[in-house]
# Entry
Amino acid sequence: MKKVPVVMWPIVGIFFLLVIVAFFLFKVEHLGMVSSKTPNLIPGESLKISDIKYSQDYKDGGGKWELRAKEGHFFDNDQFMALNDVLLKLDSFNKTSYTIKGNEGNYFRKSGTIILKGDVLGVSATGYRIETSLLTYRQKDNQVETDKSVKIIGPFFRVKGNGLYIDLSKKKFVVKRNVCTTFNCKDFFK
# Structure
């Protein structure tokens, strides 16, 4: 074996550093190509999430509500989430529970408001059913409301009208305008 003269060591070191720099330069271009293939976010969107499940207890400790969606887009500046294929469950320990489905939805985190849109269907555990195109749930007041046309189906009646207000805490509901009610007498007198 021959000994490498000490004078050659700096040249070997410089060559070694140039190889490392060239490696990282080519690697950076490759990383840039990978990041350009990532899915594009909507302007203002902070996060895109799939298979969402979010629940929260009521302040009085009497139950909880749960929000599920197949996909969501979170906008951090507005504390807002746009949702697709939404399911909202309103459960209480001593009271009736409700399940509301919609094609789309919005969750406003600051105000605690959930809006369901597109073929909205609500069903209670006691068999009552609500059909509409838009429904708003306000967590703070435990109220559900819409100004769109609505159909309510119960065990022995059907109600159609425009607009609906429900106070879940007080078990009170009001159809606002153009109300048409049909009773099924067979079921009523059983």
Observations:
- The radius of gyration is 29 Å.
- Residues 29-38 have pLDDT under 50 and may be disordered.
- The first strand starts at residue 47 and ends at 57.
